[in-house]
């Protein structure tokens, strides 16, 4: 597969996001991975093990929606968690996975499999929410090194919860998506802000 | 209405403030909105839904002091909360609304409708305060999607508390103002600093 | 008094420090003030009420060591707390006063008039300390708007504690000094780091 | 010893890391020291007492693996802790020592001599770890001003724990290493992230 101008444009936009996320401390130690949809059947995704704060177009490769490489390089081990989102939801254009301290700490502190965010004005940042007077449930999946099994588990969850804006993997990180990179980043920023608030509220109340 | 040099100058100054506030994490996920007075009868205000860290002059529009657009575009849903301040207080030149973690967390943790800040030297940043040996009460209003009703409630509050330097909306954010953009920003910076201190003191004492 | 090249050089160095301290959040809302010694009888000090993150040479003035202006402008209200240090200690070349959250919170939380820092390797940043196996006592003075009275109180304290590296004013801020601006900044950075550690330790242990 | 192009390249790379670490607040008040291997018998190391956020090539010197200077200048007092690592492990190319708040606070809070990090996905950043379902023990040595004695103690520890990725010195800081500067920095970033998470978890649970 030839690397087109589209490939480079998408890569450069993800590299800029990577620089921003690294400065925030959300992709420490080469963690995290990013992708954008190329077309109905493929996406670009970060190659395995790269520093996410200084990505170049050569740090990305094209994959099909089963996560198989269409260009040179070794895709991130978690590629399937990206491509399942593009395969299932036609309106998803970008997926970001990162590890912020809030995500890591909260996903370990909460013993159940759901984090409920309730009553915040900023919930309105998520699609389809037009009031603070509601709640959004963020699912927490157990961490595993068997990515195919986790992808299946996530897929089953979507059957009953198609409007989920993001999910956490316990002690690991967050997956977040959007119709394009700007809306994906808006979702991620809203989610992490709400998790930071929730974490501080727990420190105040030991709830 | 023609977009004058004044309009562009005010927009560019607000865009610079937006970049600063975004870097601080106080306007996550397109939240927040900013305005400055144009003249006795109008103000410029951010358009609805824009990223507050990278505003351009085209992301602003002129409104009258009832919040009705005087130039193209859809004003922020909370425009009325800005214009009521310009309409009521002739010496207000700038209004900033943002969502910092401290504002969000504290406004949810405090069950009453007032946050009292007492004994801090930095209280002197607020107009009319010349000693640390005093207190300032910041009102907390319940959040609502009915902005006109909230504007009325705020207006009634000002009847009995004309010297209030800012107010909080529960689980939502802060409104802050000043005679010009510099003094508005000084008030906002002082307020958020004091809220951060108060939050840390609560973590130490579980007060 | 003519504003010499020395005056401008000292002002420009302090302006650069101001930009750094503002970025750290230690001089919110025009708080803080800075000075450097000009000669045996005079110093330059920030003018009253300026934004400490964007100082220009015109935001400084020369004062004698009683705090009286030698050039145009209104010196900071706390000028006397700077000049008493230059008058008393011939080897002091720079004084920084700022308001960090750690300073503000800890000085309010501690009920006594001393903060003891003990057992930290970083104590060695202070002059005359060459082991971690010691302690440094930082005095806390009550806040007051009577700066002359506070200067007297500080002066009396120095009679019995000449090696103090810094002092706190309750709910207000810190005064820190050094033989030149670099060593003053090193002391300030060490102190705030140690206060941040102490604050976090108190959050862990509620000591 | 002539200062070669290699010397300058290694110094410039360490200076860039120093700027980054200073911005993070991990090398306050001239603390910390950095090194890279020159060859089988020597390394470059930061000179004593320099500001770690603005290092120039003249702020480094060459030392042999007993810590003795091979070029002009006074090496950091802790040079031996760097050179023992190069002497013992042929595949170590870079060593970073710094003082972050998390390192300082946690090493004082934990009464034992080990900090166990368990169940985090980010453990995989350390060499030889390929699952979250494990733990890594970070040793904590008592602080001392007798660097030769500490070097001996560390050396003895390595006899039984050759795969340790880093160690803490109580109330002092962390030593971290890697085959080259990038992998050393990846280890340090991973470690500090995990310590930040652990610290926040302790604040939530008072464990």
UniProtKB/TrEMBL annotation, chains A, B, C, D:
The keyword NADP does not apply. Its cofactor is Zn(2+). Zn(2+) binds at residues 97, 99. Residues 12-199 form the Class II aldolase/adducin N-terminal domain. Keywords: Amino-acid biosynthesis, Lyase, Metal-binding, Methionine biosynthesis, Zinc. Pathway: Amino-acid biosynthesis; L-methionine biosynthesis via salvage pathway; L-methionine from S-methyl-5-thio-alpha-D-ribose 1-phosphate: step 2/6. Catalyzes the dehydration of methylthioribulose-1-phosphate (MTRu-1-P) into 2,3-diketo-5-methylthiopentyl-1-phosphate (DK-MTP-1-P). This is Methylthioribulose-1-phosphate dehydratase. The lineage of its organism: Bacteria, Pseudomonadati, Pseudomonadota, Gammaproteobacteria, Cellvibrionales.
């Amino acid at each position: 597969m030839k690397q087109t101008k589209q490939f480079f444009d998408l890569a450069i936009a993800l590299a800029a996001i990577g620089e921003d996320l690294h400065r925030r401390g959300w992709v420490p130690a080469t963690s995290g991975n990013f992708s954008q949809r190329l077309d109905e059947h493929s996406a670009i995704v970060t190659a395995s093990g790269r520093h996410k704060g200084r990505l170049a177009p050569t740090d990305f490769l094209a994959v099909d929606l089963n996560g198989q490489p269409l260009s040179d390089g070794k895709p991130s081990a978690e590629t399937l968690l990206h491509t399942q989102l593009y395969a299932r939801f036609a309106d998803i254009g970008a997926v970001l996975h990162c590890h912020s301290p809030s995500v890591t700490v909260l996903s370990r502190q909460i013993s159940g499999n759901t984090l409920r965010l309730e009553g915040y004005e900023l919930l309105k940042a998520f699609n389809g929410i037009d009031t603070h007077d509601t709640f959004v449930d963020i699912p927490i999946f157990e961490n595993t090194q068997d990515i195919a099994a986790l992808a299946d588990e996530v897929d089953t969850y979507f059957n009953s919860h198609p409007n989920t804006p993001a999910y956490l993997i316990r002690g690991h990180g967050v997956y977040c998506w959007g119709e394009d990179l700007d809306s994906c980043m808006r979702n991620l920023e809203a989610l992490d802000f709400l998790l930071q608030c929730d974490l501080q509220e727990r420190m105040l109340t030991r709830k």
